[in-house]
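Morning!

This is the sequence you dropped in the shared folder:
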Amino acid sequence: MLDPFGEGARRIIEGEFGGVEELLKVIPSYTGLDEVLERIKWLESGEVPEEVLEVDDVRDLLTFYALLGALAFSPYGLEMELVKEASVRLYSLRIEKSGALAEEVHGIERASESEIPRRDRTILERTNYRELSEEEKRRLKLAYKVHLSRFLPLWDGSLKEVYIRGGYAYLTMEDALKLWKRSFERNFERAVNLLYEVRDELPNFYRELYERLGQLAREHFKEKIKKLGNAKAGPLRFDLFPPCVKIALGGVPSGLRNYAITVLLTSFLSYARLCPNPPRRDVRVKDCVESLDVLEKEILPIIIEAGNRCKPPLFEDQPHEIKNIWYHLGFGLTDKPTLEDSGNSTWYFPPNCSKIRANAPELCKPDRDCRNIKNPLTYYLRKLYLESRRGNQGEEQDGSEGAEVTGDE
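The structure's back. Tokens below.
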């Protein structure tokens, strides 16, 4: 089995197609929407068609990356949850069928018999237990190893559950598969996040595929849709903001004021509140709202307060900067806009992290969640998504626990 994020896949993508972006450009010439969606549709029945399970490596890469391209239009929504679930189950089935784990992902290697002292292996694998079945012996065998530098970030259990020797964690097939799944999910989210930045350059094929995925996702998650849902306009969650935005909200010194308030804060707050997952980059405010109430009563006061916290206060020092705020919101250079003015200038999208580092490095103080993030809005989308997923899982656990108590009574 070729793991789509492994070294073998990278060699094919780079060597035969010239990179992921080039691959995405040519995929529509190699495959169709229906073939790609076959990777997902089987979830309804739970049975993977033989032609999907046994597809050749290159064909598999093409259809998998086609799905990633579609998810660039909604990086943290039901569509991603659907594709991730189907992909993890599909690749897990292939691993189980082959009886071996790909050794090219996240440093997972085969462990030789000689690496573990016989006494330790006898205890851990219970080799003297004659009553054990062959299946149980295979289950207990420490067949894989992973260096601790790669193992620790992914392992969420106790280290007492793992045999560690010489800087490596030695794993059974079951534990190695768990580690692979966590690595796969991280790589999956990272890949979708990176493609979010190039979605405007993708062929229309991917937007059509995304719309078809949306239909499948709404059906598959119909019981959860009210709890998870896609990122939509709603009250701002200040606790989920990225560090650069929090710094800007706290006020900045003179040299940073215009960039922090007018460029970063204005664009981030407006998109995060009105259109957190814009369908395209040339969207206008009037495409998202029916009046200016939210802008005037919620967003502008926050921007003005942040400007007043600057030293010296931005709008006392530069009162004309209010016009610039409206200009960056897409209303042209005015301080008395109407909804009809929306589109007179560009509604500026939040600058990428690379631009913030280059133009205002003092704002860029990454936390652990900034890893693999290329835009502050993507950071916020991801945090919203993780919050909704945790909330949904908590409700499901509460419900199941309640059912058990009722049954006992």
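Headline: The chain has 18 helices and four strands.

More detail when I'm at my desk.
O.
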